[in-house]
Amino acid sequence: MNLSSNGVPIPFTPELFGPLRPSTDLLRPPQDSGAPRDFGALRERLHADGYLYLPGLLDRAEVLRLRGAYFSLFPPGLLAPGSSAEDGVFSGRVPEDVPEYGVAGHPAYAFVRSPAFDRFVADPVLSTLAAQLLGAKARMLPRRILRHFHRGARRASRAHVDFDYMDEGSPRVVTFWIPAGDCPPRTGALVYLEGSHRLPPEEYAPLRDITDRPGDRRQICHDLELTARTLGRRWLYADFAAGDVMVHLPRIIHASLDTTTDAMRLSVDIRFVRSADTPDPRWLRPWSADDGA
Ligand SMILES: O=C(O)CCC(=O)C(=O)O
To answer: CATH number for the domain including 50?
Structure first.
């Protein structure tokens, strides 16, 4: 498998990659026991691993409907001839009249402000889980992000921790990353650096000097192989499918891979804090790709 991130290749070897551990078993009470769900075990797992990988938490058909609703907002030309909006297969060409990604006028900008998107992220499965993981009434932050990548763009998320983008508020945050469509590594999946939520930031600070974006100290590094080797840890990955949900802590290092498949990469990321906590003010407005947050 040929993988890269922001155009920098990373070999798919057991030294550099390992599987994410699924936690779906912890979501279900023991069969026929009549016992309530054991959220305590999920909380423990989240803090032990820095993430929860929850395959099939959401209804696959609902997730694919969201995917279709987004891609159907584009003018003709983006989708491969004969494919459906739910397939989200790239034609190889972005229509010329589509504005820059995620700014006013682009479909992603309108979509995160739409009733269909609101309904999707308001699924009580998500808010209930967030409240249980935070151990208190939870509130979703209004800055909810839609990420759409297609092959050829060689654009992906550099290694980073969420807290560096929200350090003006409570650190008690949980992020939910939701692939809106099947998303194996080659479609641009998210990958997590094993156990990195326990690393003191000073340990990875030197990596911030090696960057393709020297003006931005928030991201750690764009070279995922160098990051893994320097910190002596593997990137954890999965063949994500529509319906899967990842939950992660604000201090785990994660990044995404380049999309090299015809299927486009679409995902939603939302964050919850305790209702009584003060969130970072930059996350209190709807997302726009040029909001600088
Ligand atoms: O989807 C991506 O590429 C990045 C998402 C992310 O960093 C997050 O959800 O915290």
So the answer is: 2.60.120.620
